[in-house]
Amino acid sequence: MNTFFISTPIYYVNAKPHLGHAYTTIVADSVNRFHKLQGKETYFLTGTDEHGDKIVQAAEKNKQTPKEYVDIISKLFKDTWPGLEIEYNRFIRTTDPDHIACVQTFLQRVYDNGDIYFGEYGGFYCFGCERFYTEKELQDGLCPDHQTKPEFIQEKNYFFRMSKYLKPLREYIESHPDFIQPERYRNEVLGLLKEDLGDLCISRPKSRLTWGIELPFDKNFVTYVWFDALINYITALGWPDGENFQKFWPNAHHLVAKDILKPHAIFWPTMLMAAGVDLYKGLRVHGYWTVNETKMSKSLGNVVSPMSMKDKYGLSAFRYFLLREMQFGLDASFSEEALVGRLNADLANDLGNLFSRVLTMTNKYFAGEVPEPGSLEKIDEDALELGFNALKNYQDLFPKFQFSKALSSLWELVRHLNKYIDTCAPWSLYKNKETERLKTVIYILLEGMRKIGLHLWPVMPSTSIKMLSQLGVDFDLQKVNLDQETKQWGGLKPGIKVAKKSNLFPRRELKLEKSCETKTEAQKVRKSQKEKNYIEFEDFVKVELKVGKVVKAQKVPKADKLLQVFVDLGENEPRQVVAGLAEYYEPDELIGKQVVVVANLKPRKLRGVLSQGMILAVQAKGKMELLTVSGEVKPGSKVS
Hints:
Layout lengths: L2 E5 L3 E2 L6 H19 L3 E9 L3 H9 L4 H15 L9 E4 L3 H16 L3 E11 L4 E3 L17 E10 L5 H10 L4 E2 L1 H10 L7 E2 L1 E3 L8 E2 L2 E6 L1 H5 L2 H4 L7 H6 L3 E6 L3 H15 L6 E5 L2 E3 L2 E2 L10 H8 L1 H11 L6 E2 L2 H31 L11 H20 L5 H22 L1 H6 L3 H21 L5 H10 L11 H4 L26 H4 L3 H14 L4 H4 L4 E11 L7 E6 L6 E5 L7 H4 L3 E5 L5 E3 L2 E3 L2 E2 L1 E4 L2 E4 L10 E2 L2
Parallel strand pairs: 1-3, 1-13, 2-3, 3-4, 8-14, 13-14, 15-17
Antiparallel strand pairs: 5-6, 5-7, 7-9, 10-12, 11-12, 15-16, 18-19, 18-21, 18-27, 19-20, 21-24, 22-23, 25-26
C-alpha cells in the first residue's frame, strides 16, 4: 500500500512551545513531505495532551478552570506550526469528543478481554511525572527526573495486565529489527524488558482527580494519562472501523524524544496487543537539544523560542540547521553562533552563491534563457555521475531519518557545481567565443540547481519553490518522479526564462542585541567575547603540538561522530586519539595522512575510549579539513 503515516507526540500543555517541540514537529513535517515527493498518500498527526494532575495545578495557579487553561495553551501550539511551514492533516486534542469516545471503546475492549483488573497499590507518586515509583527507582529518595520528594499514596485503582504481553513484545522486537530505531534505543527497550516491569496502573479515583476521561466500566474513576494520550494515534484515523485506519495504520510511524521511549515502546504496543490491534510499523527516537550542554528547562531559563530564531535568521535557515546539525538519535547543542555559521557557510556561501553566479551568467551570456546543451566531455560526465550518486544517497538516507547525512550528501553536489564553475571557467569560454561548449556548461549547472531545489522541498518548502521559480519551473507535486531524477539529467527545458538575479540566503551577523535584554548587556557580551580571543604568550607555549602520521583508524562503537585514530608520533607505540571526524572521513581515508596533534593534553575517556591528545582540523563550508604540513616530516616533529 503506497501510504505513510507519521505522528509527533501530543505535547503536554503545561508549557509554551519551545525548540524541542519545534524540532520534533519539523522533522515529522519534513519526512511527511519527502514521502509526498515519492508519490505516496500521507497522513501527518500532531496535537496536545490535556489531562492529568499537572494541568489542574497549572490551571489553579492561573486562576482558571482546566478547560480554560488547556484551550489557551493548545491554541499556542496550533498557532505556532503554520509559522514554521508545518502542514499537518489533523491537530488532535485529548479533550476532543471523538477521542474521549475512542478511549472509552478501547478501555472497554481491553476490560472485556480480561486484561484490566481492580486492585490496591501503595507507592511513591511524583506529580511532575504523574506516575508511581518503587523505592528502588528513586535516587536518594527523590524522583530521578524532577529531584523532588514524591508523596506516598495508598489507594485502590484499576490495573492493565501488561505483564501478560511483555514476552510477546520482546519476541516481536527481536524479530523486527526496524521496529525501534536508532538501534541504541531498541537495545535499551530490550534491556528494560529483561526486568520485572509488572502491571500498569491505569486509573485515578475521582476523589483525587476529576479532570480526565471517565472509565466506561466504573464512573468513580478517570483513566491514567498514558492510557488516554497514546490512544490518540488511532483516534485520528477513526479506529476501529474508519477508512483512514484501514488505509494508513499499516504504515504508521511514531516520532518521539528519548524521554518518552518507555511509554511508546512498551506501554503502547502491549495495549494494542491487548485490544487486538496490529502494532504500528516503526518508532523513531531522537535525542535532546541542549544549551551549554544542559537540557533545556523552563526552570533553568535556557528555553529557546523557535519563533524568535525564525524571525532573526529566517525560517529556511532555522529548519535547515535543525535537520543538518543534529545526528538523529543523539543529543545536539544549540547556539545562535552555530546557526549563523551554518547559514553563512552552507546556505549563503555554497547554495546561495551557486544560484547567484549561474543566474547572472545565464542572463549575461544567453539573455536569461536556458541554453540547449551540446555533447558532453569527461568533466561533464563526472559531474552528472557525482550528482546522481549524491541524489541517490539523499533519497536513501532521508526516509531513514538520517537527515544530517542526507543533507551532507546533497551538499556534495552543491559544492561540486561551484567547483565545476571554477574549473570550466564560463567567462573564458564566453571571451573565446566557445559558445557551444558554454551552452553545455551552463545547462549542466542550471539542471543541477533544479534537482537541488526540488530535493530541498521537504526541508525548506517555500524557498525550494522559490528556487525552482527562479529557474522558470513551476513546482507540481503530482509530476515529481524522484527515481527519474537519479537517472536522467535533462528535466529543464531549453528556452525557458530564468530570473535575472538571486539573493536567496544573504549572509547574517549574530544579533546579540536581540538576544540580550539591554544594549549595555549586549556590549558586555561583545566585550567578553573579544577578551576570550586573547591568551597570554606564556599560556600558548605550554601547548605542545607535534606532527604525526595516522597508521590506523576505526569507528568508536555507538558513537556516530567519533573515530578512534592511532597516530605515530615517534614514540614507542602509536598514540590513541578519539576525534570527531566520523561525519567527514571514513576510517580508511585517514590512514597515511600527516596530522597535527596536541600532544600534552591530559588523557580522558570519550564514550569509554581513552583519548591521549587532540587532532587539529578546520571546519569550513560544512567540511572538516585536517591541519597538516606542506611536506613530509618525521613523526614526532614539533610545531614551532
